Amino acid sequence: SSKAADRLAKLPRCDPPPEKELKTPTPSEYAASMSFREFRKKLEADGFFKRDWLKETWALVQVLGLYAAGQFFAYSNPVMSTVLLGLGMVQAGWLGHDYVHGRGPLCEALRYMPTLLNGHGVEWWSQKHSMHHTFTNEEHMDNDVMMEPFFFLRPPSESGRPDSPLRKYQHIFGYPLLSIMFWLWRFHSAESAWRRKDKKELVLLGANYAWLAFCMPWQVAIGSVFLSGFIVASLVSATHQSEEIMEYGEGAEYVEGQFRSTRDAETVFGPLETWIWGGMDTQLEHHLFPTMPRYRYHALRPILKAWAKANDINYRISPSTKIIADNLKLLKEVAAAP
């Protein structure tokens, strides 16, 4: 479509690897790709990509309810307000993520919801996120695995990027530092919108900052952004960071690459934890079918697992607690590396 072509044109240019490094798919890779095409067609026919208006309404009501409750307690109970608004920002982030990926009139109408509610520019974020989806865990292309000097997921001797004296302490300050993520997203969003002279985004960003500045104590405004940033940052890349990091041009086919770089999380603390994850516990399903509504992913999980087994592909899933522990273990190992 013309809209897809327009969005593709906004992405950074990615030159192909040298011709000598190009390779044709192996018979097994080709067979898996063809099988995946048929698998997707069947899911479409079975209604997995259709949006349920009741579930869509309930998801939006939860977000707006948390914001309204947080606003109500802003002056009478600042601590409760900070928690409610922080959770609201988390859920607004997950829901906005679904809208930006989604297709259809609902997603188009609410595409800029995260800009108004969270101060996150849709155009900047979608370009960053599209690179992540296309080149998941690929060096030089996926910024989610290139976070130096804040975090080192590989020793400098492997990545070739400059070292930092702080690396040896990253397992100590790493998780607390995650709380700045939403501030970084806000900065990049504002910078991008100003550089592009995007009036729509600038107005929505301005409205968000005016709300934070004039409708609540400054402690609530700042605290809620830190809290929501910490929760989202702890989960959004957790299912990728301890998985395989591949060199750009290594040659993994798309489907194979997603299975190699992504692990599902099995929540262990019940429905509340699943709600907080916001669909990121089914990260593999999302990467394979990003336009599918997130509330379809848990029903898809056993079907995808069976498809992977039939196609001799390794489907990975671990308890959420182990995934977080593995992330911390990786930070420690890289901190101790020479």
Which secondary-structure class do the elements indicate?
mainly alpha
Proportion of helical residues? 55-70%
The low-pLDDT segments are none
Tell me the series of helices and strands, N- to C-terminal: HHHHHHHHHHHHHHEHHHEH
Mean pLDDT: 91
Structure in words:
Strands 1-2 form a two-stranded parallel sheet. The chain contains 18 helices and 2 strands. The protein is about 65% helix and about 0% strand.
Care to give the gist of this entry?
This protein is mainly α and 338 residues long. It contains 18 helices and two strands.
What topology does this entry show?
Layout: H1 2-9, H2 27-45, H3 53-72, H4 78-101, H5 105-109, H6 113-118, H7 122-134, H8 156-159, H9 170-177, H10 181-196, H11 199-214, H12 218-236, H13 238-241, H14 254-261, E1 264-266, H15 271-277, H16 283-288, H17 297-310, E2 317-319, H18 320-336
Parallel strand pairs: 1-2
